[in-house]
Amino acid sequence: MTAARNEPAVALRRLLPEAGHLTADEAAAQLRFCDWAPADRPYVAVNMVATVDGRASVSGRTAPISSVADRQLFHALRTRVDAILVGAGTLRTERYGRLVRDPHRREQRVAAGLDADPVAIVVSGRLDLPADLPLLQDAASRVIVVTAAQTPLPDCAAQVSYVRSAPVDLGAALAQVRAEHGVRSILCEGGPRLNASLFAAGLADELFLTTYPTLAGGAGALTIIGDAPLPDPLDVRMQWLLECDGELFARYRLDERPGG
């Protein structure tokens, strides 16, 4: 398996569970998120990057702590799920567009038994989303907006539907997207507040955490769950640990969750 057609695949060194070498695509091919979904909601994996001192962004963006290897794993994980889940703040900051633009990646999704393009699920309690966001103006994109607002977004080229509750109830929303939209698996890409809500509600099954080899500092800079408290500490179990040029790629499973 390869990376995107115009980009050589980066070799990752596997440290755990056994020594070896593999590409991001080969690592992702082991993941069967849809098969692990419980009956009443999608299987949810959270994918985040942080610095060695735990910062989830630098100057508000993740690009300064991203590498070729991290991007390849990021896009490979997107080929294994029905939907990508993101909070409104992350969507605005990162300016998401079509989620899988590379035709080769879309072919990989189809080969894995998925639709060529994943559904985008956006959580926006107040529906504070600029209409000019590239994702909302992409006619090929399907977007489900989880919101407490009753009014629709104006002038969207994307196919937009809504899951409404006041206040937003993530558990009920995930149950609804499973029952009504057939979403069996989700990759959550943040932000921190959304991550914290998923972990606190017991809705996250896995965490993929890239540790970028730099110290960022910055008083008040976000971590992967921000400052939100959890009801109790959550134990996680490492499933794999990969390395490339000092950057670490860990996969953790929350205890008592399905998955390999």
Helix-and-strand structural type: alpha/beta
Oligomeric status of the shown chains? single chain
Uncertain residue segments: none
Largest sheet: 11 strands, mixed
Residue-averaged pLDDT: 92
CATH architecture: 3-Layer(aba) Sandwich
Using the alpha-carbon principal axes, give the shape.
globular
Strand order of the largest sheet: 2-1-10-11-9-3-8-4-5-6-7
Name of the top-level CATH class: Alpha Beta
Number of strands: 11
Query: How would you name the CATH homologous superfamily?
Result: Dihydrofolate Reductase, subunit A
Approximate helicity band: 10-25%
- Indicate the CATH topology: Dihydrofolate Reductase, subunit A
Amino- and carboxy-terminal Cα gap? 21 Å
SSE sequence, one letter per element: EEHEHEHHEEEHEHEEE
If helices are DSSP runs of H or I spanning 4 or more residues, what is the number of helices? 6
